[in-house]
Amino acid sequence: MANVLNPCRSAYLDRILRLTSKMSVRKKQSISTATSGNGSNCTGPPVLIDKDDRITLIGLNRSRNRNSIDEETAGCLSGAIATFENDKTSPVAVIYGIGGSFCAGQDLTELEKRCKINAVNQKYKGFCLYHNFLRRHSKKPIICGINGYCIADGLELAMFCDLRVMEDTAVLGFFGRSIGLNIECGGIGRLPALIGYSRALDLILTGRRVDGREALDIGLVNRLVATGTALGQAVNLAFSIAKFPMEAVNRDRSNMFSNYYERRKGFSTAIEHETASLNSINLLEFEEGVERYKDAQIKGLKTDLWQVKPKMVPEWEKEEILNEQRGTTKCNC
């Protein structure tokens, strides 16, 4: 079976080998730097930027924090997206998470600090103040490769992208519901457009987890792929778009966006409703939610929200993974 599949997957495997070899070299050359958020240290900057031919690769690099977004990360991510948008040599970008998760939302420690600052200043402008880039439409196509956890603002980051490639063991959801965190980084404007009003309301009100099969069925993601392949498959998808004349692609993309949201009073109107909804009661509920979360961690209580079920890997896929590992080892010699 593996011999039959290998010729069809040769381009994909070649790309995976190239990407993994690049990452291995980068790890050897990286310098440990302190990053904000939960007081942990991560290897290298919080966002890594690379290129695979014409495709810009933007990697979230706070694996010890499940790639949660703190102020430094948000600034780097915003800058990386702006650089990509101004790069005339790169028509498509891919956003991915390093170390097992795509993005676990905003950094809880910074959220708590921001909540207190808002309470003192009486300026209820929202928690998502430092990644405003999510509240607009990107200038060029962006694809994301989703692995592990893609929750809260991480899910809003995924919806900011044009297309989403999700691994079959990844988890989506607005888990911030349990601590009283509002959705205010474009999710209210985008989610109903992607999956419809009723389904969007279901996910928003319950804050429940969504697995890969359901996400594909309802249209929340575009591709469902095997565990460990999201980045490679996302890059393949990016190349399938980048091969076309991009002026026509971007014009059609822009017209699609404008036509859809203008019929619904515009995307900016949806964003205004999101950011104007925060008040003192929200802040109080959020503070109480953070304290409950901390107490649960101290007492050692467990929740199934963070559990990813292991996937049974078929024999042919195990053989291909071994081939990839052998190829990566050869590249690193």
Number of strands: 10
Main-sheet strand order equals 3-4-5-6-8-10
Proportion of helical residues: 40-55%
Parts with pLDDT < 50 across at least 5 consecutive residues: 1-10, 23-41, 119-127, 301-306
Radius of gyration: 20 Å
Distance between the termini: 30 Å
Provide the structure class.
Answer: alpha/beta
- What's the helix count? 12
> Proportion of β residues?
5-15%
What does the main sheet amount to? 6 strands, mixed
Mean pLDDT: 76
Oligomer: single chain
Element pattern in H and E: HEEEEHEHEEHEEHHHEHHHHH
* Shape verdict: globular
Please describe what this structure looks like:
The chain is α/β, with parallel strands linked by helices and 333 residues long. 51% of the residues lie in helices and 13% in strands. The strands form 3 sheets. The chain has a 6-stranded mixed sheet with strand order 3-4-5-6-8-10, with helices on both faces. A two-stranded antiparallel ribbon has the order 1-2. Helix 1 (2-29) crosses helix 8, helix 3 runs antiparallel to helix 11 (280-299) and helix 5 crosses helix 6.
